[in-house]
Design a protein that fits this description.
The complex is a heterodimer of chains A (110) and B (253). Helices cover 82% and strands 0% of the residues of chain A. Chain A is mainly α and 110 residues long. Chain A has one domain. In chain A, helix 2 runs antiparallel to helix 3 (54-78) and helix 3 (54-78) runs antiparallel to helix 4 (81-108). Chain A is globular and about 45 Å long. The radius of gyration of chain B is 48 Å and the shape is rod-shaped. In chain B, strand 4 and strand 5 form a beta hairpin. The termini of chain B are far apart. With 253 residues, chain B is an alpha+beta fold. Chain B has 6 helices and 8 strands, in the order H-H-H-E-H-E-E-E-E-E-E-H-H-E. Helix content of chain B is 48%, strand content 19%. Among the domains of chain B are: 57-115; 120-229, Protein of unknown function DUF881 (Alpha-Beta Plaits, 2-Layer Sandwich), CATH 3.30.70.1880. Classes of the chains: A mainly alpha (110), B alpha+beta (253). Chains A and B meet through helix 1, helix 2, helix 3 and helix 4 of A and helix 1 and helix 2 of B.
């Protein structure tokens, strides 16, 4: 409940302050957001599975974000940044979909 | 998290509710902080994406966009040139048409006044000849007309008959006829032209006024700033005369 409220608060702050993203972070922010969303959905699924652990959630969230950003950074250095971003987005998208499917099965039994 | 999904658990919702209840643990606070960061990042990224179209794109995408823009710009330039040419054409055409129309209208006006098919107004003189003895003859009236024309009269009316190039004067038993229309006494002659010139031409020694007075008739001449020659001459298409084509022009069939 508190994290959900936190999400709303963060959205509101971002909308009202509309900060500028530093140029160096611009390629990584969208990927990091996708990775964080994957962690969030994974956490919800873990809650429903009965295996949720606060520490695991926090660590997976942070590691997801860092690894995703690092992969994109690496791709940029290697000259295949756009392809690697696409790959990361695809992989994370698949994971999000499978997590959502699992959550759905728990909640709606369908 | 990629483990196979467990069997459907009837207490899943209950567990979700339990988990959603606020708990004052350090990990929960940290999770909330992460959620705040996530929301902030999402909002920032969305806004960034809306406000900055090109800045976040990569080189190859920028090149593609540039190519597209160049192509589009070339096509639009082409369009603009064509439309400009069309516009120039139309503008020239319409001004040419307007000028031609104006010239034609001026010609129609001039010819209408000359041929007597248009009413005319302007400065001129009004001349009244009272002839109780019936001494004034058509030649005398014709003399008056000729004198007026010599003095620059542009439109002339006698009684209510417009005097034009083809007008003819006849002596009949009842008096004088112009173009087969009887003109009643006193003869009123309206002439548009320069009033002082025309009236002095009438009054010169040995001129019209003196001739008329010698015959025992009366004549009065008044100058007017604006009088109207309102009588019209009706045109008939010529039965015999045909225009000669100007040299170099192709004869019309």
């Amino acid at each position: 409940m508190i994290p959900a409220l936190g999400l709303l608060v963060g959205l509101a702050v971002g909308l009202f302050l509309h900060p500028d993203v530093p140029l160096a972070l611009q390629p990584y922010l969208p990927i990091a957001v996708i990775a964080a969303m994957d962690a969030v959905f994974g956490g919800v699924r873990a809650v429903l599975d009965g295996i949720f652990n606060d520490k695991v959630f926090v660590v997976s969230f942070l590691s997801n974000v860092v690894v995703a950003a690092f992969i994109v950074f690496l791709g940029d250095q290697l000259g295949v940044g756009s392809q690697l971003s696409t790959g990361v987005v695809v992989v994370l998208g698949i994971r999000i979909f499978s997590n959502v499917a699992s959550i759905r099965r728990h909640l709606f039994r369908a | 998290m990629s483990q196979p999904s467990p069997p459907v658990n009837p207490s899943a919702r209950k567990r979700l509710l339990l988990m959603a209840r606020p708990r004052a643990t350090k990990a929960n606070a940290f999770a909330a902080l992460l959620a705040v960061l996530l929301g902030f990042a999402v909002a920032t990224q969305v806004r960034q994406n809306q406000s900055l179209g090109l800045a976040s794109l990569r080189q190859s995408e920028l090149v593609t966009i540039l190519d597209n823009a160049t192509l589009l710009s070339a096509r639009l330039d082409q369009n603009a040139r064509e439309l400009q040419a069309t516009r120039d054409q139309l503008v020239n055409g319409s001004t040419g048409d307007a000028a031609a129309l104006k010239a034609a209208q001026e010609r129609v006006d001039a010819l209408g006044i000359l041929a007597g098919t248009a009413r005319a107004h302007g400065p001129g003189i009004r001349m009244t000849i009272g002839d109780r003895g019936g001494k004034v003859t058509p030649p005398l009236l014709l003399d008056a007309i000729e004198e007026l024309r010599d003095a620059g009269a542009e439109a002339i009316q006698v009684g209510n008959v417009r005097v034009v190039a083809s007008s003819h004067f006849d002596q009949v038993a009842t008096g004088v006829e112009i173009d087969n229309t009887p003109v009643t006494q006193p003869y009123t002659i309206l002439a548009i032209g320069d009033p002082p010139t025309m009236s002095s031409a009438m009054e010169i020694p040995g001129g019209l006024s003196e001739n008329v007075r010698q015959l025992g008739a009366s004549i009065t001449i008044t100058q007017a700033k604006d009088l109207t020659v309102g009588a019209l001459h009706s045109l008939h298409a010529p039965r015999y005369a045909r225009p000669v084509a100007p040299p170099g022009a192709t004869p019309t069939p």
